[in-house]
Amino acid sequence: MKIQENVPISEITTMRIGGNARYLIDVFAKDEIIDAFKFIDENKLKFFFLGEGANSIGKDEGFSGVILRNRLQGVETLDEKERIIRGFGGEIWDNVVKFTTDLGWSGIEAMSAIPGTLGAAPVQNIGAYGQDISQVIVEVEAFDTKTREFVTIPKKKMEMGYRKTLFNFGEDAGRYFIISVTLKLKNGHLNPPFYTSLQRFVEEHEISDFSPANIREMVMKIRESKLPNPKTTASAGSFFKNIYLSNSEADEAEARGIQVFRSNGENTINTGWLIEQAGLKGKEFFGFRVSDKASLILINESARSFSDLLKAETEISRIVKEKFGFELEMEPVKIEA
Ligand SMILES: Cc1cc2nc3c(=O)[nH]c(=O)nc-3n(C[C@H](O)[C@H](O)[C@H](O)COP(=O)(O)OP(=O)(O)OC[C@H]3O[C@@H](n4cnc5c(N)ncnc54)[C@H](O)[C@@H]3O)c2cc1C
To answer: How far apart are CA 318 and CA 325, in angstroms?
Structure first.
């Protein structure tokens, strides 16, 4: 276990803003979680869990408690016949994807190159190009901060929806520190038609090999061409959530010329499309720029403060609301207790 004091949150999150964390504790083994909570209890501190900080945003006042960072790493096959793997929560998500595509297994290949850790992946039910982790997750092992015990949580208890789960919503949000995640993959491969941009890539390049490894290659190329690389460009990925509508709301939106995607009984508006239609693509707000390649992404070009981010969020939301009547909701999590 490694304890550091007064660590700038801007240096441990990809949006690169936020004041100091009073303490940053890295845990590298299961036993160390007990030691970390002994420290938290003895000093009566608040806590916040962190992986790579790709979906978490620091506030200007920082965080006066402990940021507990999962550094437990490794991924292994548990059952080759059933295609079950388990990885530790601090493992880099994309390493886990590569591990499965190297085995030729399908299930998470379209989620290649999503930044962050395996432990954070179930928290907001990460997804991309038609796949999300709820489709493959079996269970997680976690430290229950309420009972101070290690527990196993099966998928059925996770209440997974769009960016919403037991781990980030309701009274148990922030209760479980995820230690390891078990996934069950499939044989075979994805088949067309694919999610729009993947389908376009397949057609343009006349590709017929849809093996997990090849889907991974394609997704990585698509993402590289339009999404910021957290190593060089500050962002938290999609800054706003997509909008879910009831059938009558969807009918009404379509009558107003708004693009609604209807699939599996769900109606969604791509918020990036609304932002683009509002003329905000590529526009700058208080040091943040709406990406000119993916309008859902806010890039931090020169901003240093959370208050500037709030101003940018308020202004973009106001313009979209005025034009289309929809409230926007921020996707990344604020680092607070
Ligand atoms: C350029 C870019 C592109 C992105 N593209 C996508 C995308 O295509 N699809 C998508 O779904 N997301 C995307 N994201 C968002 C982000 O990659 C995911 O949310 C990812 O899961 C974050 O992982 P992390 O380890 O950085 O999480 P963090 O930001 O560190 O944490 C996120 C949340 O999980 C909690 N948490 C972290 N670790 C644990 C743990 N071990 N136990 C319990 N709770 C924990 C935190 O408290 C916080 O609430 C993108 C982000 C960026 C910057």
So the answer is: 9
> What dotted CATH number matches 2-70?
3.30.43.10
Write out the two tokens for 243: 């909008």
Domain boundaries, the chain: 2-70, 75-184, 234-334
Q: What is the fold of 234-334? A: 3.90.78
Q: Are 307 and 315 in contact (CB under 8 A)?
A: no
Among 71, 163, 223, 289, the active-site one is: 163
Residues 112, 235, 238, 291: which is the catalytic one?
238
Single-letter code of the amino acid located at 117: T
DSSP character at residue 36? H
pTM over 0.85: yes
Q: What is the pLDDT of residue 265?
A: 87
Ligand 1 centroid – CA 54 distance (Å): 5
Beta bridge partners of 119: none
Domain at 75-184, CATH class: alpha beta
Residue 238: active-site member: yes
211-223 residue pLDDT tens: 999 999 999 999 9
pLDDT bin (cut points 50, 70, 90) of residue 224 is: very high
Q: Helix, strand or coil for residue 27?
A: strand
C-alpha 118 to ligand 1 mean position (Å): 9
Structure tokens, 5: 């004091």
**Which helix (H) or strand (E) segment is 260 a member of?**
none
